[in-house]
Amino acid sequence: MNIAVAQSGGPTCAINASLLGVFRHATKYEDIETVYGAVNGVEGLIYNNFVSLNDIIQSDDDVELIRQTPSTVLGSCRYKLPAPDSGDAVYETIVATLRARDIRAFFYIGGNDSMDTVMKLDRYFEANNIDIKVIGIPKTIDNDLPVTDHTPGFGSAAKYIATSIQEITRDSSVYSVESVTIVEIMGRDTGWLTAASAVLRANGEVAPHLIYLPERPFSVKQFVEDCRRVQATYPAVIVAVSEGIELSPDEAEGFQSGKNDAFGHKYLAGVGKALEKVVTREIGCKVRSIELNVMQRCASHLSSKRDITEAERIGGAAVKAALNGESGKMMVFQRISDRPYNVRIVSVEAEKVANHVKYFPTEWINEAGNDVTEDAIRYTLPLIQGEQNFRMKNGIPQHYVLPEALPRPKK
């Protein structure tokens, strides 16, 4: 038999480690002949676009470089499958593609929307007596997948965010003038990443002085009052704010596009600039907004070793689950303890994850709604531990690039 693996959704520092986990674990079984990589997620199944990972990953050097390379080696997509009972021919196309290569297990590395794909494929296969196993492997920097304690990619992004805010704090503190620096952090629906900035307190830092998450209503008036209050003690105020906090249409106008992706999710970004305008108008001090943007997804030079190691582990566990006959499942972490940190990997039904959101616990947000509690620090701190030993070239970390450009199908 052969198996296939694909990557979907937004890039992370750990998604290629999960790919390696699938490949390296699969090569331990004589029954598995070839591990195929589907190019551009589920679109690779639709357009018959595959590469053989056995041909690509041939040495320990390849393994090491792929492990330290951010983003998706196989490319990604945001393709929404129709309902399994819709009669859409796309499912017949996928089955024909998989059968032509004798692929009997498919592994999909991704987030909420990718688990929707896992769930739909499994339901179609089961309804039509097709013996192809489908297993989801979690991935998202947003850390918003239900059931699992955390997601691969989150720890590395959290580490980059905390480090960046620490450096921004040093930069903003050199002048005697009063200032407000607003750091906009990814998080469409949830505030996990923004809350992770609080881990700096474990090292004695005070910043960020204010933290705002989508899980609490946001008041521009209260935000201005908070900045003024903090500035009375700390002239250089550092604010961490989730891109997903809700501003009124007038406040957000001109800063957010209003467009949606294939799954109906709004393209955000722009909150920091909107609040910069507010501070300029209401306080009048020096102010700047910094949007960390895609850097927080792919800053592999600051990746968490634990994050990368766990990503590879959970990829391997997915292969074992499929060979044990499981399908329509997603692999998850269950935290056993914080100190010492310990987790185990189990599987759950993908339908418990698909199209659902795990919000940041409101009990971990302070009463004023402008900071987080020690619980957030205790939860996040173990996930950012450890540093990668990077292979460098000319002073720059090396990345793995396929020997030939991935074939791009005409759609």
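(the above was protein one; protein two follows)
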Amino acid sequence: MQRKITYNSPVILTFAGISFVALILGSLPGSLATRTLFSIYRAPLNNLQAYMRFFLHVIGHADMGHYVSNMLLLLVIGPPVEERFGSKSLLLVILSTALISGIIQFVFFPRSALLGASGIVFMLIIMSTFLVYKKGTLPLTMLLVFVLYIGGEVVKGIAIVDNVSQLAHIIGGICGGFFGYILSQRRRS
């Protein structure tokens, strides 16, 4: 029997592909694409690029290692979430999470830049716990993942000085819990 390769998760696969193109664009000699398009930071709001960056920062990555670590998790967790909640809903959740994390970065952290899909990945991790949601219940797995994950990110944010945005992870996790719950409720009713 001949097997056919399918584009089984259009939002997730397209996100991974666009992120790869952004990585290549940012890696070209002399390129400023990562800084000017694929990172969110405080900038004058009279520039159209400032508004684009509220969404585009989630497709930018610092290097191939950063890209691969985010995409591996995205490609494992994303397809079942997309299948369960639908491509349109997942796209709206990704855009909403990007916008929320972009606004928070822009407003509260004027001296640093944010880029990468880790907030989206952690949103998907929390959303994935709603795949077996039953109306009138709150999955213990979701509560445990949320507490362990958010707790770990808070501790890392306080104790470790690095170039990782624990805040983006926390925002992604909160968005994943919120949107996962809302979409599960809507899907069940």
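Reviewer note on protein two: The two ends are 40 Å apart (CA to CA).
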